Amino acid sequence: MPKNQANTSLSATSATPQPERIPDACIVVIFGASGDLTKRKLLPALYHLEQAGLLPEKISVVGVARRPLQDSFAPDMKEGIISGGGVEESDPKLAPFVGKIQYHAMNFDDAAGYDALNKLLTSIDKKAGTCGNRLFYLATAPEYFSDIINYLGAHGMAKPADCTDGSDKKPWVRTIIEKPFGHDLESAKALNDEVNKVFDEDQIFRIDHYLGKETVQNILVFRFGNGIFENVWNRNYIDHVEITAAESIGIEGRGPFYETAGALRDVVQNHVMELLSFVAMEPPVSFEASAVRAEKVKVWKAIQPIHPADTVRGQYGPGTVDGKAVIGYRQEDRVHPRSQTETYAALRLEIENWRWAGVPFYIRAGKRLPKRVTEITIQFKLPPLLLFKDQQGKGAEGIKPNVLSIRIQPDEGITLRFGAKIPGPSMNIGSVNMDFSYAEAFGKSSANGYERLLLDAMLGDGTLFAHRDGVEATWALMTPILEGWKNTPVKDFPNYAAGTWGPAAADALLESEGRKWRKL
Ligand code: BG6
Q1: Facing residues of 365 across strands?
Q2: pLDDT given at position 178
Q3: What are phi and psi of 378, to 5 degrees?
Q4: I need a labelling partner for 34 at 20 to 30 A (CA). Which of 17, 130, 236, 313 fits?
Q5: Own/partner pairs for 410-414, CB < 8 Å, 24+ apart?
Q6: What angle do CA 319, 323, 326 make, to 5 degrees?
Q7: From the CB of 247, is ligand 1 less than 6 Å away?
Q8: 3-state SS assignment for residue 208
Q9: How far is CA 151 from the centre of its chain?
Q10: What 3-state class would DSSP assign to 450?
Q11: Which residue's CA is minimally distant from atom 7 of ligand 1?
Q12: Is 104 in the active site?
């Protein structure tokens, strides 16, 4: 079947849109607003919601950071919305929206700053009619999370105040906490304890931007919104699963952060584990937050401790990416010249439950790989009998296992590889693809994933956010690996050149079981 033929009858307009829910009037307070995330992702996402008519009319955005940026903040955010959000300067909604952006300078450990912030928010409530509803977004470096949470608690800002518009509406206060949530199991538990002292669990939205990606949410629709796939989604039909999160970029000037993180903490504990849970979970009893989260946690808890021999770490040396020479990790700014930090991690794991027992899951994530691609590959078993061979036993050579590739990014879509008869007098078989492309079916989108998550948090819907149990379950899996790695320093770093597919040991991880990473 020609590429993309399968999708030609699909169109975005064929779907019946759900009636949209508009959040209550509210103030979005972003701590760490001078950072990259706010300008590149959060404000463009908020503006996309505004363009789509999904924000309340009465909304205010307050950026909070240490630097005195009062005059430059709103224009800078406007610039971010234009360049990062693909928005025209002439867009009629832009100027009024930018008019709703304010800035408050303070140190995160300064009590007086919280008093002043509280006064500012109350005065906005009065002027803008935001009625005490607050969304505190913690986009700071993780070391400030607990200070901010504790000060908000101590200043009575974590509990809803009465609505000032004279109505009997019950205002809400919620907090979104960015990753990394802790750096191991113990610190994640400690942070959870601190946050839970100040906020109730239903006020807390631990964000993982991967869950905002349409392609990630679509894994659940693909599995549970279709009648045919779930029947073969198990150990009887699936040989193995691969999850790749490859990036061609390096650490982008984030040396001090990355030195304390590494690939396992930065990407595997959160983004990759989320992908894995969506692929492996049982159908939830409903699409309610608690039901979805419960099934995810069951998957993580069913993963057996990962043996050191089933882990591979790598660090990039100098090399060539996209035709350009690039430096090695140890030469990056503010990175130790003998750094032991991994920029690549590969794991083999098994999920010990009735659906998955005996099916290996191979995971790899790394920086400075040949290209940016996040993909889930489900490889099915070969048919039990190879019927189509000629008298010399040939002809069956073309039979390859069916492969379902779920392309998370950047070429979003899903492909199913299957065998087809090559036209001609003999029964020769070749591999062909059925392909679904998001861009072709639904058009290109400028959304960055934060839109959905910001909207859900404003609506109080935690389905796509991590729960305390989930964060601790994934850290429980990663922490022994991290400790093991710490206790056995690597001698061969750097062990892959920038622009290659990672260390040879990662290939050996699959080769020892007669498998190969899928070429991406
Ligand atoms: C972030 C990591 O969480 O995810 C970054 O800190 C990484 O190191 C990024 O580059 C990848 O996100 P995306 O959406 O580009 O795949």
Answers
A1: 245, 345
A2: 96
A3: -110, 115
A4: 130
A5: 410/372, 410/373, 411/373, 411/437, 412/214, 412/215, 412/437, 412/438, 412/439, 413/215, 413/437, 413/438, 413/439, 414/222
A6: 35
A7: yes
A8: coil
A9: 29
A10: helix
A11: 267
A12: no
pLDDT tens figures, 282-296:
999 999 999 999 999
> Is residue 303 within 8 Å of 477, Cβ to Cβ?
yes
With beta carbons less than 8 A apart as the criterion, state whether 288 and 460 touch: no
Which of ligand 1's atoms lies nearest the C-alpha of 271? 3
- Residue 1's pLDDT is 38
Mean pLDDT of 388-412: 81
Residue 411 main-chain phi, psi, to 5 deg = -95, 75
Q: Which of 8-22, 60-74, 184-198, 383-397 has the lowest mean pLDDT?
A: 8-22
Q: Cα of 263 to ligand 1 centre, how many Å?
A: 10
* Of the listed ranges 13-17, 64-68, 400-404, the one predicted with least confidence: 13-17
319 forms bridges with which residues in the sheet?
Answer: 326
The CA-atom distances, in angstroms, between 448 and each of 74, 85, 412, 434, 460 are: 20, 8, 13, 27, 20
Catalytic residue among 271, 307, 336, 467: 271
Query: What's the whole-number average pLDDT of the chain?
Result: 92
CA of 32 to the centre of ligand 1 (A): 18
User: Which is it for strands 173-177 and 413-421: parallel, antiparallel or unpaired?
Assistant: unpaired
